[in-house]
Amino acid sequence: MSGTGAPPGARGAAVGRRIGTVVVRGLWRPRVLGAWRVPATGPLILAVNHAHIVDGPVLMGVAPRPVHFLIKKEAFTGPLDPFLRGIGQVGVDRDTADRTAITRALGVLERGGVLGIFPEGTRGEGDFASLRSGLAYFALRSGAPVVPVAVLGTTGARGRAIRALPPLRSRIDVVFGEPFTAGDGSGRRTRAALDEATVRIRKRLTAHLADARHATGRG
């Protein structure tokens, strides 16, 4: 989307984290597992499954570090536009090679921040089945480790519409996995390397999701 290519400030993401913590813990009962696996410093990519619109806010509120999410540009409308920008989120046009968004996201990683990505590109079943290459691109380009994250319980009880909010005071589980490097160690950034990294990432994320479901008793 249009705008400066400068990365969003760390202060805004920190404010967003505080807001998210208050909102999420006020509405639901988040249970966080594996937060100790998240490196305390340095560039990092959080790869998050995406089944509900509240997945991002939930993660922002419980992650041990402030997160700058890549969010579809359509969300940046009306009063949400200055709010999302103010809390350090990055708008992206999913229909084009959005160079401004790419520059801003890489800037987050270059200054040692945390970039949050929904690698499926949009809300779906939240099972990492339809992985896009964007995550692999940022991981190879920056060299930042990837931490898989499973957000479980946001779709609510069986039969609820996916857009409905999770029931008030229901439990939402957020499970952080082991950090890993997406590349093969060769430093290649070719199309073939990107495809290979995408396959490698999909396997790691899918395995983490299965482990998270087992650990939380959600399948």
Task: Walk me through the topology.
Layout: H1 10-27, E1 29-33, E2 44-48, H2 55-62, E3 68-72, H3 80-86, E4 90-92, H4 99-110, E5 114-117, H5 134-142, E6 146-152, E7 171-176, H6 191-216
Parallel strand pairs: 1-7, 2-5, 2-6, 3-4, 3-5
Antiparallel strand pairs: 6-7
Helix pairs in contact: 1-2, 5-6
Can you walk me through this structure?
The protein has a single domain, classed as Glycerol-3-phosphate (1)-acyltransferase. It is built from six helices and seven strands. It has helices spanning about 10-25, 55-60, 80-85, 100-110, 135-140, 190-215; strands at about 30-35, 45-50, 70, 90, 115, 145-150, 170-175. Strand 3 (about 70), helix 3 and strand 4 form a beta-alpha-beta unit. Mean pLDDT is about 90; it is low at about 155-160.
Fill in the keyword field for this structure.
219 residues, alpha/beta, Glycerol-3-phosphate (1)-acyltransferase, seven-stranded mixed beta sheet, 6 helices, 37% helix
Give a quick rundown of the structure.
This protein is α/β, with parallel strands linked by helices and 219 residues long. It has helices at residues 10-27, 55-62, 80-86, 99-110, 134-142, 191-216, and strands at 29-33, 44-48, 68-72, 90-92, 114-117, 146-152, 171-176. The chain has one domain: Glycerol-3-phosphate (1)-acyltransferase (3-Layer(aba) Sandwich), CATH 3.40.1130.
